[in-house]
């Protein structure tokens, strides 16, 4: 796993949702992003198999309207911060899941969309939060487990 650039991580959360995060949040973030990308790929694998394919294509990825909007917003934020390459290095490929190169190139963007959605979920879950603590991270993970 790549070592995340903490300054970019902190800057991203400030821009995306006016949150102050710190080094302790990095581990939680890495676990969250990899868990959700694995969930996306497991669902995409089922879609590919239903279409009689062994390899996951980009159209198999179950991107919802909300995640697609957050992906677009991530693109704008990423122009300032440059997190896409960091996310590409951070993502861990789940075992026994095969996908095309085109799908692999799409994953950092989806991870970015998930990151925007995550950052913006904290103030929804707790309107007074400025620096998410373990309780807020746990709530966000439970919420995303229901939706993604």
Structural summary, described in words:
By secondary structure, the chain is an all-alpha fold. Helix content is 70%, strand content 0%. It is built from 6 helices and no strands. It has helices at 6-17, 23-50, 65-81, 84-90, 101-125, 134-147. Helix 4 (84-90) crosses helix 5 (101-125) and helix 5 crosses helix 6 (134-147). The protein is globular, with a radius of gyration of 15 Å. The two termini are 23 Å apart. The mean pLDDT is 95.
Short description:
With 148 residues, the chain is mainly α. It has helices spanning 6-17, 23-50, 65-81, 84-90, 101-125, 134-147.
Task: Write the SSE topology.
Layout: H1 6-17, H2 23-50, H3 65-81, H4 84-90, H5 101-125, H6 134-147
